[in-house]
Amino acid sequence: MQFKDIVGQRDVINRLTEIIDSGRVSHAQLILGPAEDGSLQMALAYLQYLCCTNRQHYSGQWPVASGQPGDAPLRADSCGTCPSCKKISQLMHPDLHLFFPNATTSRVKSNPESAEFQQEFHDFVIENKALGNLDDWFASLGIENKQGILNVRDADGIERSLSLKSYEGGWKMVVIWMAEKMNTECANKLLKTLEEPLPGTVILLVAESDERMLQTIRSRVQTVRLEPTGNSRDAALAEQFSPMLVAWLRLLFKLKMKELGSQIDQMAAIGREQQKLFLQYTLGVMRGCFLSTAAGLPYSIGSGDAKFDAMFPKMITQNNVETIEQALSEAVFAIERNANPKITLMELSFRMSKALKKK
Ligand SMILES: [Zn+2]
Fold this sequence. Notes:
- This protein is an alpha/beta fold.
- It has helices at about 10-20, 40-50, 85-90, 120-125, 135-140, 150-165, 185-195, 215-220, 230-255, 255-270, 270-295, 305-310, 320-335, 340-355, and strands spanning about 30, 55, 75, 95-100, 170-175, 200-205, 220-225.
- The radius of gyration is 22 Å and the shape is elongated.
């Protein structure tokens, strides 16, 4: 998981990479936000960046895939290709230990603990691109009707994982997913681990809410709060731009030159700053379509036409998402560099139209 794979959250990410670069890595952090907003994605991308041997810095450069509309570009990201990045992205890094709510199942009939469900959790995270929620997880274990928790065996497991020697000679990392599901025994035991941090260890608690978490735990972790997606600024951008986007997308399917020409005239007339915002908004929508569809979640582009809304997000797949992002990022770059907007938008239209056919 790279930061660029996360929708939005650019300010949060940029703060995190700055802290890592400065070497002030906190040994325990709480990443707070809904699963669907990418809280686990954030934890995994954070660790990948932390361990990356070839961190990429983009200071002042563009394009870097932007998530939500109007967001700042990323200042840095992991490389995604060094051995460490590969191991973390496949959840195969020997120093990365994952803990999560669990319960007895048809296979594990007593004393359940995270260690028993590593393969299931691995598959769940990879399949859902780390966007699945607790219900999805329990459903995948076939325990919809049970209360999964993190129990004292998990706390022991956490302690054990951190006391091991690092296999790779670097960080020893623990992710506790849905940390609010720790029972009291588990939380009390974890508290001891948090009070006496071992050097070279990082504990990331990922939670949707800190209300049910012990105050003593909250006070010992640094909290990173995700920005709520679908915030008012994004809603305002959607209101402003979605009619234009929908009209344009429809024409990209038909590619009738005369209608497309007059649509582009309208888009060119709004001015460079607005064009940039519009293209960044479009980029956010495309990523949203792709990630939501990939995770099996609905995504509305707000066309006002239920059929189009249901159909369009499925057009953005792993076969074309990168081409589309690249085309949009390059168009933003061109407009920033004072390229002719009509020519830029026409070229973009052709590239998008071609890419959409490759779904
Ligand atoms: Zn790397």
